């Protein structure tokens, strides 16, 4: 039974990784920018989720506010920070992004206090018993929400005109432009959707842990980079596989090799080993 | 004479100059971005601390630190032969987390508590400061020499266009490894000095934030520029001290500054100075 428990925990964790990492991989696919500050948006989403739920008592409203505010914040980051430095060498936006992330974390600490916040009352409680398996409802909700979001994204990308424009732009921006696609809009959309997904993940993680703190984005921010690299930078299916695999791997790893390495190091050990075998990622184009 | 506070601040300045110049050799000269410099710093510190505690003298302990760090550096350098650019940045970041993960769980290395009661250098506070500053100056002079030397030229070509360099008959792999060995060796020296300065080392002193801080010194100074990196290492070490009054906002300002430099002048301080020194030549306006 331990195996099933570990797998479920790993999948819950992995689906959260997936929601955050997809936004990151979308940004990378389009702009070739490693958007570290993405994890700052995830933290922002989590704070909004807790604050709005506590103020109004409505979890649904919290999700809406978090999605809209964080989505707009993501667009603002693109416009104010990345757009002017896109033609610089890749380390320039990377380091600018790290700078922004540090500043955001500090801002959260100064504005919301260093000790973190909790929900006045956990919005979802209780657990679901399936034979010998015991799942908390909040875990089920998390898995469901992640599946809905990612499924929606897949439909958007595959079935709609916007999605076609989006994929065309990622593939070849110049060609897309010559076919009349306004690629600037695609970029804004990209940042809005990616950031909104991070916000959803933030609220869900806040519910899972019933806790948000200023530094909650620190470990995810770097682990997300590992995941999108594992998935082959810019590849959405690769990112999903890498996120879920890493979630499961970590939950087993902490039990079996936890004495040798801590949880965060496992992700990077996996990453480095993988990069040596496939230097361009799991599903990366060689 | 200098007070204890000034002594310790100046020692930290020297150590940070060593770290930044070392990273500049890898990232600035040779173009291999590294986000894990603190791992080599930490390796040097742990090796020197263990050597020193087992009775080796100050200088042999430092040598052990340099040797271990450079050895790890060459191993990571081997990775740089396989992965490039963004992938290398992430892989080196991984090295940093892996280093922490390993060190934290090893009882022999003291786990979370680290290693304490590391003997002093035996040079006295002022003598030790001179040793640190002397090493920093020596590395700076070497760095200037290296940049102008034939090898510096080769590094430049690799940073510019690895494939072309290879076609021209340059043994790219060998020179990359040399750059890693030099830069990480310098970090090892800095680590050894830090261990003897602080007398206690803990894993958190070599975390990813430290790597970023070192990288920030290099890019704020102007990647590849010796004078710029020197100036930035000194400034960014002194700034938090000067800002102690508003210490609550220290990191906010730090992050903001890094962000602003990248946004406004990606060439760093060196880029700004270069721009200011050429008002007569009508250069095209590159940066706003």
Number of strands of chain B: 0
Radius of gyration of chain B: 19 Å
Average pLDDT of chain A, rounded to a whole number, is: 85
**What is the N-to-C order of secondary-structure elements of chain B (H for helix, E for strand)?**
HHHHHHHHHHHH
Number of strands of chain A: 2
Uncertain segments of chain B of ≥5 residues (pLDDT<50)?
A: none
Question: Pairing-aware structural class of the strands and helices of chain B?
Answer: mainly alpha
Percent range of helical residues of chain B: over 70%
Q: What is the total domain count of chain B? A: 1
Structural class of chain A: mainly alpha
Low-confidence stretches of chain A are none
Q: Tell me roughly what share of residues is in helical segments of chain A.
A: over 70%
* Oligomerization status of the protein chains: heterodimer
The secondary-structure element order of chain A is HHHHEEHHHHHHH
- Output the number of helix runs of chain B: 12
Strand content of chain A: under 5%
Mean pLDDT metric of chain B: 85
Strand content of chain B: under 5%
Distance between the termini of chain B: 45 Å
- Biggest interchain interface, per-side counts: A-B, 47 and 43 residues
In words, what does this structure look like?
- Chain A is mainly α and 286 residues long.
- Chain A is built from eleven helices and two strands, in the order ααααββααααααα.
- Chain A has a two-stranded antiparallel ribbon.
- In chain A, a hairpin with a 2-residue loop joins strand 1 (127-130) and strand 2.
- In chain A, helix 3 packs across helix 8 and helix 9 runs parallel beside helix 11.
- Chain B is an all-alpha fold and 288 residues long.
- Chain B is 74% helix and 0% strand.
- Chain B has twelve helices and no strands.
- Chain B has helices spanning 4-29, 37-53, 58-82, 85-105, 124-148, 150-160, 162-167, 172-198, 208-221, 226-242, 250-264, 268-276.
- Chain B starts with a helix and ends in a 12-residue tail after the last helix.
- The chains are: A mainly alpha (286), B mainly alpha (288).
- Chain A binds chain B through residues 32, 34, 81, 84-85, 88-96, 98-107, 110, 222, 225-226, 229, 233, 259-262, 264-269, 271-272, 275-276, 279-281, and chain B through 27, 33, 79, 82-87, 89-91, 93-95, 97-98, 100-102, 104-105, 208, 212, 215-216, 219, 223, 248-249, 251-252, 254-260, 262-263, 266, 288.
